[in-house]
Amino acid sequence: MRPGPENLAIQLRACGRVRPTHFKLAVRAGYVLRFPFAEGVRMTTLRELVKDRKLYSVNVNQTVLEAARYMMEHSVGAVPVLRDGNLTGILSERDIMNRVVAVGRTPGTTAVSEVMTANPRAVAADESIEECLFIMREFGFRHLPIVDGKDLKGLVSLRDVLMHQAAEIERQTTRAAS
């Protein structure tokens, strides 16, 4: 399929011989990659994935100790960091371990702003889950903020994406068997 100017998308089929260099070249050229499970199947958007979830976040001025307790209380491994309601970073358990605990900083006096991952790459809520997975894989991200314009809609983890993919494959297998 040759992409038209109104729809810069490359449809890659599982049966084709695709190498990692093809992905890199397409991304550099500005193409949006789409990975459908089957022809004609509508892809789930990130908006659909996060629509019924509560959004947990911390403020940039909170201490790491406050943020860690908040994350533990809500059983989340990462949270968006907000400044005046705008996304400014992400704080993950890994950030706390590597940038606070391992270097001997005091969580009760260290500000979240000092150890967060600043200016995170965000993904539009209308992007497909497959595109999100591609970005996570290409850049080594475990968490991505989901935005609608400047509004933060949620945070998606690699586990969320993979669990959704597994459920979708199971649904298709069940449908094909019946």
What is the topological layout?
Blueprint (H helix, E strand, L loop, with lengths): L8 E3 L8 H9 L3 E3 L11 H5 L7 E2 L4 H10 L4 E6 L2 E7 H9 L10 H4 L1 E2 L4 E2 L4 H11 L3 E6 L2 E7 H20 L1
Parallel strand pairs: 1-2, 3-4, 7-8
Antiparallel strand pairs: 4-5, 5-6, 8-9
Helix pairs in contact: 6-7
How many H/I helices? 7
Number of strands: 9
Distance between the termini: 32 Å
- Assign the CATH superfamily of one domain: CBS-domain
Description:
The two termini are 32 Å apart. With 178 residues, the protein is α/β, with parallel strands linked by helices. It has helices at residues 20-28, 46-50, 64-73, 93-101, 112-115, 129-139, 158-177; strands at 9-11, 32-34, 58-59, 78-83, 86-92, 117-118, 123-124, 143-148, 151-157. β1, α1 (20-28) and β2 form a beta-alpha-beta unit. α6 (129-139) packs across α7. The protein is elongated, with a radius of gyration of 19 Å. The strands form three sheets. A four-stranded mixed β-sheet has the order 3-4-5-6. It is built from seven helices and nine strands.
